[in-house]
Amino acid sequence: MRLDLALLAVLTAAAPATAPVVSYDPDTEFHHYRSYTWAFAHTPSNIDPTLYRQVRHSIDQSLEAHGFVHSPHADFAVGFTVGPRAKMHASDFGHYAFYYSASEAASHQDWINRELAERSDHDDTLSIDIYDTQTKSSVWHGIAPDPVVPHTLPSIVEHEVDAVVSLFPPRK
Length: 172
Fold this sequence. Notes:
Helix content: 25-40%
Order of helices and strands: HEEHEEHHEEH
Strand order of the largest sheet: 1-6-5-4-2-3
C-alpha cells in the first residue's frame, strides 16, 4: 500500500500540469507538407535572444526528428511567440501575419480553439504557428503545456517544443 502511494505520487509529480492545445484548419491538406522554412525576418523584438535561439533550435530538432526538412523553398513556414502577441512588432514575421486579417479571422473562426486563443496571450506562453507558404495563411497553431521563460533549461525547452510539434501534422 505504501509503495502504491509512493508510485502514485511520483507519477503525478512527473505528469505535465496541462496538455498542449492545438487548433488547425480542417480544410488544409497537410499530407503534402515535407519541408519548412522560418517565418521570421529577424529575431522577434519581444523575445529574449538566448531563449529565441533555444526555442528555434528545439523546433528545428523536433521537426527534423518527425521527418521534415529545412529548405529555403519550403511547403510551410514556422513562427513562434513567447508571451502576448500584442508585444510583437508588425515586421517580426516578415510576410506572415501573426494577427488574422478580417477575412482570415472570419474564414477560420470555426477552427480556432477558444482555449488556445485565451492561453496564447499570457506571459511566458510558447505558441508555435504553421503557415502555408503558398497562401501565407495560418493553418495550424499549438500552445506549449507549461510556461517558457528566459534561463529555462534547454532540456525543458526541448520537452515543451516537442510536446507541441509531435501533434503536427494533425491526425484527421
